[in-house]
Design goal:
The complex is a heterodimer of chains A (193) and B (380).
Chain A lengths: L4 H8 L6 E5 L5 H7 L4 E6 L2 H10 L3 E3 L14 E7 L8 H11 E9 L4 H10 L23 H10 L3 E9 L2 E2 L4 H4 L2 E7 L1
Parallel strand pairs in A: 1-2, 1-4, 2-3, 4-5
Antiparallel strand pairs in A: 5-8, 6-7, 6-8
Chain B lengths: L13 E5 L3 E2 L5 E2 L2 E8 L9 E5 L26 E2 L4 E2 L4 E5 L14 E2 L4 E2 L9 H15 L6 E5 L1 H12 L6 E5 L7 H15 L9 H4 L4 H15 L2 H7 L18 H16 L2 H13 L10 H5 L5 E7 L7 H13 L4 E6 L13 H17 L3
Parallel strand pairs in B: 5-8, 5-11, 6-7, 11-12, 12-13, 13-14
Antiparallel strand pairs in B: 1-4, 2-3, 4-8, 9-10
The chains are: A alpha/beta (193), B alpha/beta (380).
Function (chain B): Transfers a succinyl group from succinyl-CoA to L-homoserine, forming succinyl-L-homoserine.
Family (chain B): Belongs to the AB hydrolase superfamily. MetX family.
Main location (chain B): cytoplasm
Chain lengths: 193, 380
């Protein structure tokens, strides 16, 4: 079974036997993959079709709205809490980050990097909101509310005393280490208190 | 007429007699009792494909199929159970029973007490959800079922499914707890008490021994059912179905039936009071009120549910206010805190509490998806 490349990067960061909460878990792809490696835990998903898809895969899923917070989960009850490509579409951006580190010892957050060169180029050349592979929406029809660049996310972490344990920046399958905020289209952060 | 390939078809109730005394939570003992039940599908060679259906307040053993070809209505959960349905009888052996204290053939207040030769009436002991589960376990023993592939129930039935995982953690692989709660709230007990007061204050009740008086506390039971029925529907659902519709199209300025909703509720109350036993109604509402598995754990539900070994599917319905989604979430939170395996769905429905008996598409798909995996686990 092969995973979407960003999910594979997340999966690589999760040790066998960990107890994981996957926020906005979609159809349960990540958790199904991890279950085969002895990882337990739950997905949280708002869409009923995705909830049913998770149940079909045998992935434990809790239907709920992340905007309402993680009140259903106890403090420090998970080893890792995952939020993949969702934080940019949330209203309660800061709150969810804080809540993730309340219920989990570690959080993994991925998001499309707005600082990616193609976005910058489109703004520069066309003077219009960029539409790219990782941000594939017109400005008037986008779920994204809080797009950010690497430095923005790191500043939010610093403001809240959150430590960046690991940062991986990617462009497609490729890991980007040189000028990541310019050349990387997707960012993965592993953070903790 | 061609037979419906998705129906279990014609079914016959069976009766199991038990002579081993059953001591109840109240301290009372039933020396002998009988349970009436139905089964659908075939038990497989290693008896691993059995599913128990637990009924709610007014339910019984007749869960699917028909007793006679000309029966107007099928069993109460026929839309969920049958060949190719979510609880698929071509894969599972499904057992439905009437609980102790019931009025459909299992020993209850309207049964003859062998010690007196008279109906038990008011002397029938109050039974609790754990008492029912103990009795159901004896039926399982009788049927050669060591471990249920799943125990499934809605409302009060969901409480039994939950209780199974605590009383007999090794005897249930999956519990499906639908439109239920870990205990009743004050408001919910209050509804039950108004229903009981309606029955208890009916002059035909005679302290519960109305059988000897040749009366039936029909007015009380009717009111109890009318009240209950309101709480099983949603405001929106009731509004959409009845609104302010008048039977005759204009006000009559009197107290006869005028609004369609009045007509509907009275009809439901009348129908119910024709066949249901008032003492059973009292007893079922008390079983609801007493249910509180966390009580023995100083109110810590997660500690209580930590005893469970089963996997859970918990489902609620958006417009259910009698057993609201918030109450199901209490169960889910406790299971998560106890690191039990659980999935939870909050199904959009206009049907209120009654939605657990309906066929809202996502609900049916959810049940089908979950039970398909249960079947695969047991090779069914």
């Amino acid at each position: 079974m092969s995973l979407r490349s960003d999910l594979q990067k997340i999966a690589n960061d999760i040790p066998p036997g960990a107890h994981v909460l996957d926020l906005g878990c979609g159809d349960g792809e990540l958790l199904a993959y991890l279950a085969a490696r002895g990882v337990s835990g739950y997905g949280v998903e708002i869409d009923v079709d995705n909830v049913i898809a998770c149940v079909e895969r045998g992935v434990d899923v809790i239907q709920g709205d992340l905007e309402a917070g993680l009140a259903g989960f106890a403090d420090q009850s998970f080893d890792v809490v995952v939020l993949s490509q969702t934080i940019q579409a949330m209203k309660q951006t800061e709150q969810i980050l804080l809540d993730m580190l309340r219920v989990g010892r570690e959080a993994i957050v991925t998001f499309p990097n707005f600082g990616y060169w193609q976005n910058r180029l489109q703004i520069l050349l066309h003077g219009r909101m960029p539409v790219s592979e990782t941000i594939p929406y017109a400005w008037y029809d986008t779920p994204n509310l809080h797009l950010c660049m690497l430095g923005d996310f790191e500043a939010l972490c610093a403001k809240n005393g959150i430590r960046v344990v690991e940062r991986v920046v990617m462009d497609g399958e490729q890991e980007i280490t040189f000028l990541p905020n310019l050349l990387g289209s997707l960012a993965l952060y592993r953070v903790s208190r | 007429m061609t037979p419906d390939p998705h129906s279990v078809g014609l079914v016959t109730p069976q009766t199991a007699l038990f002579d081993t005394p059953l001591t109840l939570a109240s301290g009372a003992t039933l020396e002998h009792y009988q349970l009436v039940f139905e089964t659908y599908g075939e038990l497989n060679a290693d008896a691993s494909n059995a599913i128990l259906i637990c009924h709610a307040l007014s339910g019984h053993h007749h869960v699917a199929g028909r007793h006679h070809p000309d029966d107007k209505a099928a069993g109460w959960w026929d839309n969920m159970i049958g060949p190719g349905k979510p609880i698929d009888t071509s894969r599972f052996f499904v057992v439905g029973l009437n609980n102790l204290g019931g009025c459909h053939g299992s020993t209850g207040p309207s049964s003859i007490n062998p010690a007196t030769g008279q109906p038990w009436g008011a002397s029938f002991p109050v039974v609790t959800v754990p008492d029912w589960v103990h009795a159901q376990a004896r039926l399982a023993d009788r049927l050669g079922i060591e471990r249920w592939a799943a125990v499934i129930g809605g409302s009060l039935g969901g409480m039994q499914a939950l209780q199974w995982t605590l009383t007999y953690p090794d005897r249930v692989a999956h519990a499906l707890v639908i439109a239920s709660a870990p205990k009743l709230t004050a408001q919910n007990i209050a509804f039950n008490d108004v229903a009981r007061q309606a029955i208890l204050t009916d002059p035909d009740f005679h302290g519960g021994d109305y059988y000897a008086h040749g009366t039936v506390p029909r007015r009380g039971l009717r009111l109890a059912r009318m009240l209950g029925h309101i709480t099983y529907l949603s405001d929106d659902g009731m509004g959409a179905k009845f609104g302010r519709m008048l039977k005759s199209g204009e006000y009559r300025y009197g107290y006869d039936v005028e609004f369609e909703i009045e007509s509907y509720l009275r009809y439901q109350g009348d129908k119910f009071s024709d066949y249901f036993d008032a003492n059973t109604y009292l007893l079922m509402t008390k079983a609801l009120d007493y249910f509180d598995p966390a009580q023995a754990f100083a109110g810590n539900l997660a500690a209580a549910l930590g005893q469970a070994k089963a996997q859970f599917l918990v489902a609620s319905f958006t417009t259910d206010w009698r057993f609201s989604p918030a109450r199901s979430k209490e169960i889910v939170k406790a299971l998560i805190d106890a690191k039990r395996r659980v999935s939870y769905a909050e199904i959009e429905s206009t049907h209120g509490h009654d939605a657990f008996l309906m066929t809202d598409a996502p609900y049916v798909r959810l049940m089908r998806a979950y039970l398909n995996n249960v079947a695969k686990e047991v090779g069914a």
